[in-house]
Design brief:
The protein has a domain of about 130 residues: Alpha-D-Glucose-1,6-Bisphosphate, Chain A, domain 4, CATH 3.30.530. It contains five helices and six strands; from the N terminus they run ααββαβββαβα. It has a six-stranded antiparallel sheet with strand order 1-2-6-5-4-3, with helices on one face. The chain is elongated, with a radius of gyration of 32 Å. It is an alpha+beta fold.
């Protein structure tokens, strides 16, 4: 006759084996699945942003970075444009120095194309090249915009040089990285040299351009 306590012991043993299997499965997911997920994310992350993360700049010059990307990494239709905006706790002059030193240390070479910048900008604006990439670095004073009141949109005040340094400390850094083949500044620039175009784009007029006209005969 079977022992009355055998069946309960079997049930307890089965429950223990089930718990062990569940714990083993969870451990396998944590030890293998999570690192694999982050590894996959790292592989998918744009290497340009990874290199910007590795720039040797102090922590005060790398506050709250915000990245934006557009276009295709493989230049399908449009090549990729990478943009990063970051705050600095110190002046634009000091911030520009540490970023330029970090770029040089990372292998970037100063570059002076015709349109750097494309239009006059306040602050420090420099251009750089490395391998198949171009980089624009713009460091300037932050814009002083007060927070909105009672849900109303913020209004940009008139700049006041006497209080700008006190109200808006630090600086704002913008980095723009493009593929060199998609950067128009790497291509031959148009010229207005008459020897190449055959036409003087800015002809010189005499003192009176209408003085040599023949008057119409009287009717």
């Amino acid at each position: 006759m079977p022992d009355a306590g055998t069946e309960p012991r079997r049930q307890v043993a089965g429950q223990q084996r089930t718990r062990v299997m569940i714990l083993a499965l969870v451990s396998a997911l944590l030890l293998g699945g999570v690192p694999a997920f982050f590894g996959f994310q790292a592989m998918n992350r744009d290497p340009v942003f990874v290199s910007l993360d590795e720039l040797d700049v102090p922590t005060w010059a790398d506050v709250d970075p915000v990245d934006d990307v557009s276009g295709s990494r493989w230049c399908l239709l449009d090549c990729r444009l990478r943009e990063r905006t970051v705050n600095s706790e110190r002046s634009p002059e000091e911030t520009a120095q540490v970023y330029e030193a970090a770029l040089s240390q990372d292998g970037w070479q100063p570059w002076t194309p015709a349109y750097c910048p494309e239009q006059q900008e306040k602050g420090s604006y420099t251009c750089w090249r490395r391998d198949e990439l171009t980089l624009d670095l713009w460091v300037r004073s932050p814009a002083c915009v007060p927070p909105p009141v009672d849900g109303e949109p913020a209004v940009v005040p008139e700049p006041d040089p006497a209080t700008a340094a006190e109200e808006c400390p630090g600086s704002l850094v913008s980095v723009k990285v493009r593929n060199a083949i998609d950067d128009e500044r790497t291509r031959p620039q148009p010229t207005t040299d008459p020897s190449l175009t055959g036409v003087d784009p800015y002809p010189t007029l005499g003192e009176d351009p209408l003085g040599d006209l023949t008057p119409s005969p009287p009717s």
